[in-house]
Structure to design on (196 residues):
């Protein structure tokens, strides 16, 4: 396979939590991603007030950037620290509440109400809990998902999309035999077969 030795690699939830705890978050960027800026019109497609989903959001600065434009942002992340850091670093007051449908999950919501971040496994979410979305900004989710879970991830994402939605996906290209990931290498052919 062209994914080299990565296909059996599994990164546990504990390892992700440890990355946030240790500050080993080189994947976090302090600036709005240039590809989101470049393709923003593709995501928005002339529409305003969209519901935009950030899978495995971390503390992405793009969440506030899009919310400031009048969009409703929903994210999901296993690290509570990442979510709290987001609100603190963006100077946004927030409230915290349990998510009754998901044992142990929490929702952090900006006081303004236009940013809602769920602290749980993405696989615990469903459209009955978070609704459906007009757009997705997947900057580091598909490439972070364990290769064995990609089909499960994409199947979930498809159930969260409105009929006329836009999905912006960023991947990385490199020789997967030289790097064990994450980020994982996801060849274009696999993206096409996953999303259909």
């Amino acid at each position: 396979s062209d994914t080299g030795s990565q296909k059996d690699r599994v990164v546990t939830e504990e390892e992700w939590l440890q990355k946030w705890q240790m500050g080993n978050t080189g994947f976090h960027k302090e600036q709005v991603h240039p590809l989101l800026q470049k393709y923003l019109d593709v995501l928005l497609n002339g529409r305003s007030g969209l519901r935009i989903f950030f899978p495995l959001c971390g503390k992405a600065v793009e969440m506030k950037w899009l919310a400031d434009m009048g969009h409703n942002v929903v994210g999901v992340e296993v690290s509570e620290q990442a979510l709290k850091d987001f609100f603190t670093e963006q100077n946004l007051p927030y409230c915290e509440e349990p998510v009754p449908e998901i044992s142990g999950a929490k929702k952090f919501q900006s006081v303004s109400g236009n940013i809602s971040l769920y602290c749980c496994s993405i696989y615990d979410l469903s459209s009955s809990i978070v609704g459906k979305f007009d757009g997705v900004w997947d900057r580091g989710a598909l490439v972070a998902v364990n290769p064995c879970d990609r089909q499960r991830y994409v199947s979930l994402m498809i159930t969260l999309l409105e009929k006329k939605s836009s999905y912006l996906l960023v991947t990385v290209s490199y020789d997967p035999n030289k790097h064990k990931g994450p980020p994982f290498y996801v060849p274009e052919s696999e993206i096409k077969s996953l999303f259909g």
The longest strand covers residues 161-169. Residues 13-22 form the longest helix (10 residues). The mean pLDDT is 94. The beta strands are 51-54, 72-77, 94-98, 106-110, 115-119, 133-138, 161-169.
